[in-house]
Amino acid sequence: MSERDLSALARELEAIVGAAQVRAPSALEARAASIIVEPRDANEVAELVRKCEADAIALAAIGAARTLAQIRPAPVAVGISLARINRVIAYEPDDMTVIAEAGLTIGALNRLTAARGQRLPADPPGPDHTTLGALVAAAQAGPLRLSEGTVRDLLIGVRLVGHDARPIHGGGQVVKNVAGYDLMKVMVGSFGTLGIVTETTFKVRPTPERYTVAIAQFPDLAAALAAAAALHEAVPLIHLEVVSAAVADALGYEALPQVFAGVAGSAEEVAYLLTQAGAMLGSASAIIADAEAATAYEGLRDFAADDAAIVAQIAVAPAELAACLTRSGAEFRAHAGCGVAQIFTRDASNADDLGRTLAHWREIARGARGNLRVLRVNDDFHHELNFFDDPPGPALALMRRLKSTFDPRGVFNPGCFVGGL
Amino acid sequence: MAPTAQSTIDARLLAELRELIGDDGMVLRATELKVYECDGWTLEKSAPEILLRPRTTSEVSAILKLLHRRGIAYVPRGAGTGLSGGCLPLGAPVMICTSRMNRILQIDYASRRIEVESGVVNLHVTNAVKARGLIYAPDPSSQVACTIGGNIAENSGGPHTLKYGVTTNHVLGVEIVLPDGEIAELGGPAEERCGYDLVGAIVGSEGTTGIVTRATLKLTRAPAAYRTLLAIFADVENATRAVSAIIAAGIIPGAIEMMDQMIIRAVEAAFHAGLPEDAGAVLIIELDGIAAGIDGHAQKVSELVRGAGAYEVRLARDEAERATLWKARKRAFGAVGRLAPNYATQDGVVPRTRLPDILRAIIAISQRHNIRIGNVFHAGDGNIHPIVLYDERDASETQRAIEAGRDILKACVEMGGSLTGEHGIGVEKMAEMPLIFSPEDLLVMSELRRVFDPDQRANPNKVIPVPGACVEVSVPRRQVAL
Ligand SMILES: Cc1cc2nc3c(=O)[nH]c(=O)nc-3n(C[C@H](O)[C@H](O)[C@H](O)COP(=O)(O)OP(=O)(O)OC[C@H]3O[C@@H](n4cnc5c(N)ncnc54)[C@H](O)[C@@H]3O)c2cc1C
User: Fold this and answer.
1) Testing the interface with B: which of A96, A161, A174, A178 to mutate, by most B Cβ within 10 A?
2) Which of A299, B144, B204, B395 fits a 20 to 30 Å CA distance from B275?
């Protein structure tokens, strides 16, 4: 769109939501969208969707824009920021459920629920930058996925604005519900390509009374990964992270492969679990608790390999992960026991290098019946690659039908998801 | 009822089917087909014209391709234990049963994954892995009979889903034969998917997206220790309050199940499980996990339920006592057969803090309609199972039973709940769908269904009320069928 068209569009958008709600994008946002609109409620979102569909203008919901800025080959015209749609609608601690608007961040939600000893245990990097909408759209998870599952397991209700500006809701506010098709699953990990999520309902969980981490370092990767596998087999942990030497270094630990085994529960449970974990990890392990454990956890959770040339997430059957990581030769942060790791490399001097690395990783993932998704890539190369694996033919055919059913005019964050959807 | 493509099964089709799966894969005789005229929801009956029992995915695919060419609708069937009429043929002359697809294909202990054919019985999955300290967590009370395919279709739960989640939380991949016969492999052993979560869309779709032929399931570490408590109350009100007290204290037991007096007595008469027949209600509360600290939790729960009015709390002393309690609970439905010739089980859900309110409402509804209603349910999830008793030979009583059931569901919805927690909408609760979903919501759901089944031949006339009929909620279709 030309400058002139954009400013004309901005004026039209102002007419819908008011001038104060339309602004220029920040530097990061500019890679995701050309104009940012901040609607105040779902009705305004619906009006914006109606306008964009009528004029065939691409739009996308934007949280902190971190993911979109990466995966979009070019910005959409209209970025819908949900920053003002961020209320808590109902928090029912005794039911352990919360209904909140999609612009609220995980961090803000968890500060509220902390007062009742509860939390939304979805822990992608940067809870204060991750809106609930982005959590649903990008479905990123963190260390706690081992014990608490992922957003897929926690989302029990959703409201979105779909095509034709339709207000749609699925699920409800009860923890068990099979009435109708599971729209929550359809929306989770859909990267904003099916509609604009405006409200989410989650299960929350009790925050454990105590949390302690056993940290052990190993001379080589194989030893660290083997220790983690043995630990996973024997001890119920709250998380089990394995990091390569470079990650350990970046997190402020000795530059050796390290295992972080988290245990949680009552004092008695934690004491018992630590004895077990400690016995398996041997004398090389250190135990940290309280504030120190919390800091270590936050470091692990927020680690994002910002200086890497490329970061990808590999997911395979858990028992295959160690072999995949070893073969990849990449630095990594692994959610052992879940078969998921973020892998990265700092050295790639040109796009060809990077393409070869990525092809190698993809082949490793496929060989283990898994998949790979690029999370981030150095600015210089970012237009030239596929962020998503292509699903097998029949699956992709279904996905194409799903996309054209939910987004017949192709306006919702088009052209950056699997198969170019 | 919606008009459907009513193709007859002609001689040519029969010959082609015989070619595909052989005589032993087909049931044609009316007397034999009568077995398949309903599932666990018996208010309506209708036998298929033919039953097919394929042995492999390619047989399923060949059958569905043939039906696709002929424009013939079909109903998938597992063990037929469904409680919402999901297996009832409505405008679908062909029934396809997975009973011969019952092999366990692959177990990866280190990854805690198992790949099975969809006709495998739920309990057989756990039986296959328990020697290695693993279980398949979703445990519907019907688990000795129901199939993984049926569980996937209904997104089934069970007592222990309070802590461990329902079927959808444990299914990572499926092989599905789409209604046009195309085979799609979706998801797999990895926890992350590439592209849309179609597995998540298929789980709970009640057989309307195709025939699931295989599934990759997550296995769970078997708890090292259990403490199973029987908390005894004078009335249901206090029992349901106790449930909230436990959850509010931040304790998530493996299971919290409730039985009221009518059910307790029926169970005692049938199985002599040692339940207190004079009690108004009991809770079975099971804590599980590691041994360390579990007695402390049991003590805490014991105090909480006493605080909420339990006059006695018994702790199962050993595995035998625990097994007896669970047997009593899991066979409660069977015992209900003694109370009345017929019963219909509702499956509403309320936020768990509203359990006392919904139980009070159920008592009032029972009195208003002069119908007996027993309660045995997954209390920890707020998932109620009022069992409405009636005699189908008594038309007036049958009618009152239906109305009582509907009133209960309405009350659940008014309390912020849902129509069904685990049994599915099926045909049974279609008419109530507009109570919780707007016309737009229902439209989107039917569009989603058509992504998989464009011409609506997979288990037609289920789940979503036919457009136009939405407004006729006051004339539920099942009344017509009685
Ligand atoms: C005594 C009793 C206790 C029960 N307790 C529970 C409980 O605790 N929790 C719970 O959730 N449910 C419970 N149920 C309900 C029932 O057992 C479950 O819904 C179960 O999952 C049904 O499995 P099934 O194999 O019998 O499926 P069926 O009844 O044969 O079929 C159910 C639905 O699944 C579809 N279907 C079956 N197989 C496939 C396939 N391979 N692909 C696609 N669609 C398919 C059918 O078309 C139908 O719509 C109980 C039932 C009884 C009778």
Assistant:
1) A178
2) B144
Cβ atoms A263, A238 nearer than 8 A:
yes
What three-state secondary structure class fits A67?
helix
Q: What is the CATH number of domain A3-81?
A: 3.30.43.10
Q: Does B300 touch chain A (CB under 8 A)?
A: no
Residues A7-45: b if buried by 16+ CB within 10 A, e if exposed: eebbeebeeebeeebbeebeeebebbbbbbbbbeebebb
What fold characterizes domain B225-334?
Alpha-Beta Plaits (3.30.70)
CATH topology identical between B11-97 and B225-334: no
Atom of ligand 1 nearest to the CA of B213: 41
Whether CATH 3.30.70 fits A310-384: yes
Cross-chain CB nearest to A178 (options B111, B154, B189)? B154
- Ligand 1 pocket, Cβ-based, cut-off 6 angstroms: B 39-40, 75-83, 86-87, 98, 118, 140-142, 146-147, 149-151, 153-154, 156-158, 206-207, 211-212, 333, 422-423, 459
Q: How confident is the model at residue B354 (pLDDT cuts 50, 70, 90)?
A: very high
Domain A88-206: which CATH number of 3.40.50.10840, 1.10.3720.10, 3.30.465.10, 3.30.160.70: 3.30.465.10
Task: Please report, for chain A, the start and end positions of each structural domain, with discontinuous segments joined by +.
Answer: 3-81, 88-206, 210-302, 310-384
Fold of B105-221: 3.30.465
User: Are A313 and B449 a contacting pair at CB < 8 A?
Assistant: no
ipTM: 0.96
Q: Number of C-alpha atoms within 13 angstroms, CB side, residue B165? A: 20
Q: Which of B425, B424, B388, B413 is nearest to B403 (CA)?
A: B388
Domain ranges of chain B: 11-97, 105-221, 225-334
Most ligand 1 atoms within 8 A of CB, residue of B95, B141, B167 to mutate? B141
Can you give the length of chain B in residues?
A: 482
Find residues 78-97 of chain A whose CB sits inside 8 Å of chain B. Answer: 92-97
**Is domain B11-97 in CATH 3.30.43.10, yes or no?**
yes
Task: Give the model confidence (pLDDT) of B385-425 as tens digits.
Answer: 999 999 989 999 999 999 999 999 999 999 999 999 999 99
Interchain proximity B422–A173, CB inside 8 Å: no
Is the CB of A178 less than 8 angstroms away from the CB of B433?
A: no
Domain A210-302 has CATH 3.90.1150.10: no
One-letter amino acid of B480: V
Residue A56 CA to residue A76 CA, distance in Å, equals 11
Radius of gyration for chain A, computed over Cα atoms and rounded to the nearest angstrom: 22
- Please state the pTM of the whole predicted model: 0.95
